[in-house]
Write a structure and sequence with these properties.
The chain has 483 residues and is mainly beta. It has 6 helices and 33 strands. The strands form 9 sheets. The protein has a 4-stranded antiparallel β-sheet, with no helix packed on it. Strands 4-5-6-7 form a 4-stranded antiparallel β-sheet. It has a 4-stranded antiparallel β-sheet with strand order 8-9-10-11. The two termini are 25 Å apart. InterPro entries: Se-bd. This is Methanethiol oxidase. It comes from Musca domestica (House fly). Belongs to the selenium-binding protein family.
């Protein structure tokens, strides 16, 4: 092995190299929530076989249980990613992508899993007690990103009392807590997701809301106190850890969740998906300035819907996930309530073009007899229910993960168990699922694979709810490249 190869970390030198030379995914690590809080095995990581040549294709082949109730596992991240690709040739230790980090939004516990000893059977190797975060006056950990210095950073959404706040906690490579990240007195009002671009000395974060509010599910009266939910994106100086700009997106940008810089580390621009009212905003750095500007570029109209004997109400699409292909050509968004998944060509990022759409369920399907759509500015008729391998899909499209080559998109159904129980009780009762969408990356377009279904209604301890997904070889939402 050459000296040059000896000093490479676990990633790829560029996003395009990962797209061209990365392996086809064979395993899909899926964060899975147990909605029955009396079931002692609790939430778990489901290892799903996605190798089409395997006899256990599209089956759960292993479950790594937390054996603790009330965690609400949500998102996950790696201890090392493509930011670790270049390592000093004299380094004593070369990073390995061998740990998957699973924060718990409700219990504040953090589970670290060994995925290297046996990738098909990950095992918990360390548990960070929830009191560790509370000792730093932070709770509700969400997004995990590895850093180029070997540390791991996790965003948080609340203080020790569950009030809305924003900060980030740092852990070293052995998962010892190093404290919080933000310096100075200025902090955003809320926290959620984040993405950094060291080339531009910038990090962007988004906002959900106060843990004491969202943990109990959305309530109509929450509209009377919007101070506990977010509508801003926040920009930090990466080098000094200080907040330098906040952009208020207003009610159109209410609950901006997943935020993505372009994968190309020299592009100081990106997108944020705003959940409730189904908008996507584009942001970019001004020329000759450190400040950023934003522009609404995707606007999915609200539908007026009557449920049962209730008064008609506006139903937003609920864009709770967005994902960019590694070449920054296609943006995918979900509409959890409306039931469809969309592909946009963002070669001109300020003017996205809709190039694909697939319906995977949702709240307005034709067979729902207690639903009446009063006004729909997009559809002439309600969508048909989606049936895969004999099963009617309950719920709507939620989390997504795109293959490195951009040809396969995996889609799960659970948003957050308290919200699932309110909005899709049948999905909770019957269990969630994962489906696969085949992508035409050359010309644009999407098609449901009618032979792929991972059914979480048949799990050993009752129906469960699949959420975020990752591949052992890296994926389109966890790897950040350095220029």
């Amino acid at each position: 092995m050459s000296e040059q190869k000896c000093c490479h970390g676990p990633g790829y030198p560029t996003p395009l190299d990962a797209m061209k030379n990365g392996p086809r995914e064979k395993l899909l690590y899926t964060v899975t929530v147990q909605p029955n809080l009396d079931e002692p095995h609790g939430d778990y990581l489901a290892t799903v076989d996605v190798d089409p040549d395997s006899p256990t294709y599209c089956q759960v082949i292993h479950r790594t249980f937390t054996n603790r109730t009330g965690n609400e596992l949500h998102h996950s991240g790696w201890n090392a990613c493509s930011s670790c690709y270049y390592v000093d040739k004299n380094a004593k230790r070369i990073p390995k992508r061998d740990k998957l980090v699973l924060p718990s939004v409700n219990s504040d516990f953090i589970y670290v899993l060994d995925v290297a000893t046996d990738p098909r059977k990950p095992e918990i190797c360390k548990v960070v007690d929830g009191q560790v975060l509370k000792s730093h006056n932070v709770t509700a950990p969400h997004t995990t990103h590895c850093l180029a210095d070997g540390n791991i950073m996790i965003s948080i959404m609340g203080d020790a009392e569950g009030n809305a706040t924003c900060d980030f906690v740092l852990f070293d490579s052995e998962f010892n807590c190093l404290g919080t990240w933000i310096k100075g007195d200025k902090k955003p009002h809320c926290g959620y997701d984040f993405w950094y671009q060291p080339y531009w000395d910038v990090m962007v974060s988004s906002e959900w809301g106060a843990p004491k509010k969202f943990r109990r599910g959305w309530r109509d009266e929450d509209m009377n106190d919007l101070t506990q939910y977010g509508c801003r994106i926040n920009f930090f100086k990466w080098s000094t850890r200080t907040l330098f700009q906040t952009i208020d997106l207003g009610m159109e940008g209410f609950t901006p969740l997943e935020v993505r810089f372009m994968h190309d580390p020299k592009r100081a621009e990106g997108f944020v998906g705003c959940a409730l009212n189904a908008k996507v905003f584009y942001f970019k750095k001004k020329e000759d300035s450190d400040e950023y500007v934003s522009k609404k570029v995707i606007d999915v109209p609200t539908k007026l819907v009557k449920f049962g004997d209730n008064e008609p109400q506006p139903v937003g699409g609920m864009v709770s996930d967005i994902i960019l292909s590694l070449d920054d050509r296609y943006l995918y968004i979900n509409l959890w309530r409306h039931g469809d998944l969309r592909q946009y060509d963002v070669s001109d990022p300020e003017n996205p073009k809709l190039t694909g759409q697939v319906f995977l369920g949702g709240a307005i399907c034709k067979d729902l007899t207690d639903v009446e759509v009063i006004e729909d500015k997009e559809l002439k008729e309600r969508p048909e229910p989606c049936v895969v391998k004999g099963r009617r899909l309950e719920g709507g499209p939620q989390m997504m993960q795109l293959s490195l080559d951009g040809k396969r998109l995996y889609v799960s159904t659970s948003l957050f168990s308290a919200w699932d129980k309110m909005m899709y009780p049948k999905m909770v009762e019957k269990g969630g699922h994962i489906v696969k969408i085949d992508i035409d990356h050359e010309n644009g377009g999407m098609k449901l694979d009618e032979n792929f279904l991972v059914d979480f209604g048949k799990e050993p301890y009752g129906p469960t709810l699949p959420h975020e997904m990752r591949y052992p070889g890296g994926d389109c939402t966890s790897d950040i490249w350095l220029a």
